[in-house]
Specification:
The complex is a heterotrimer of chains A (about 120), B (about 300) and C (about 130).
Chain A (H helix, E strand, L loop, with lengths): L11 H28 L7 H9 L1 H29 L3 H30 L2
Helix pairs in contact in A: 1-3, 2-4, 3-4
Chain B lengths: L5 H8 L1 H6 L7 H25 L5 E8 L11 E8 L6 H11 L19 E4 L2 E4 L12 E4 L6 E3 L2 E2 L2 H9 L21 H8 L9 H5 L1 H5 L6 H11 L6 H11 L13 H5 L6 H17 L3
Chain C lengths: L20 H27 L6 H13 L1 H29 L6 H23 L5
The chains are: A mainly alpha (about 120), B alpha+beta (about 300), C mainly alpha (about 130).
Amino acid sequence: MAERYSSFRSGSTTWLLQRLTAAFLVVVLAFHFFNLHFVTHAYEIEFAGSQARMETLGYYVTMVLFLVTATFHGVNGVYNALVNQGIDGKAKRAAQIVLGVAGILLVVQGVRVANALAGF
Amino acid sequence: MSTQTPESETETETEPEAEAEPPATKSHQQRRMDDKRARAEARDEAAAQAATEFEGETVELKVFRYDPEVEGKEEPRFDSFTVPFEKGMTVLDALIFARDEYDSSLTFRHSCRQAVCGSDAFFVNGRQRLGCQTQMGDLEWPVRVEPLPHQDVVKDLVVEMDHFYDQMESVQPFFDPDELPDGELEEQRQDRENRENIKLSTRCIWCGACMSSCNIAAGDNQYLGPAAINAAYRFYMDEREGEQKRQERLEIIEQEHGVWRCQTQFSCTEVCPKDIPLTEHIQELKREAVKENLKFW
Amino acid sequence: MSESYDRGLVEDFGRWTEFSAGMWAWVFHKFTGWVLVGYLFTHISVLSTSLQGAQAYNNTLSGLEGLALVRILEVGLLAVAVFHILNGIRLLFVDLGVGLEAQDKSFYASLVLTGVIVVASVPTFLAGAF
């Protein structure tokens, strides 16, 4: 198939990524909820406890992955909802830019938070 | 009444004179004419009565009316028709009765009345159905008939189908093999298994019910729609199709407003009058597109 | 052809009794999705107080957790997240082509299961809130 050089124009990549991140998030979000509402209760959470969790490398890596996948899944979901609604032309371009920037900012800020808690 | 023969009309006018004669002096022909007249009068009376009352069950049919050229119908309204119910009658039968007996301006598309032409898709009691395929007895009464949703209404129950046809044409629903078999009379063969796979997808009658039921098609005007994607499926999965055409077809349906817009709402599958598993076919094409693209890496 | 009439969207919420299971699933999945995205941004903002040190972080969190309204909203968050996860699993099966015949039943099942999980979690979530 030498005629086709980029698979990026097809929506199949984002479609697949949305499903892959979904599968990952099902597990991790459930775990996150369980950990922070049942194992530790929400009202018991304070800096020292959060720090203790974040200092373990495995937990830290999971949380950062969680952040990235959730941001992608959520922002992509919102974008698709807008396309289904019929967004077009300039509005579509604007949505792409706003959503893209918001997503990047969220990930950056989230990593800063993770680092603050982990003591990096 | 148009069904009556002209003779009886002139005969009723001469009625008073004929009755005064004693029966014994009547000729055979005269007696025959009298009987004929009496029968005609009885028929007239019965017909006049039938027009205002019906024997047996009747059903109320509420139909969406709209006609930009007629005062009173410029804003849509619902007209009620009382239709005598007969076991086995369809929504189409009821509409035809209403048109013939009450209002000949009632407009709707219909043709084969056996669910193969796809002309009479309506929105009946809140669901897309074919008029000829829907039994009045299966519905809740009164029966509400509206034009298909999400499409512009031209008049009464007639909707614009151009957009639907455009989407169908855009997937290029025709064969284009890479090469024809040798020999002039050689057939392009397809094995049984392959035929079974695509059998259901060949049943589409282009009625438009599926596209009308899809919320994504309603919001996104560029979405190809279930029928068009199913048409693409029918050819894509057919082993007689040429590889070149197959790739082209895939590129068409894997655009942003192609298969990816489907959110698996399943409404199309539910309303399809030919029981085609549309969502399943769309899903198969999505998986196919992913597999084809993954091969690149 | 002279002007045709645009009837607009027929399925406005006035016709909700006519919605099918698949349509409800789509509507709810979208709604819960928007809520979760909104929450994600809020959540990171709240956690950003950690950048100002332990004191700010602790005060913010305990302050929020002290409000009964917040505790109730957390139950709502649970409901939204659980539904989105369960229906999401249903959608993953649909995408794999498994169990398409039972797609409406699986939607009802995910609704019921969401209800069960939320009700079972209420005691834990609202402990000490009032």
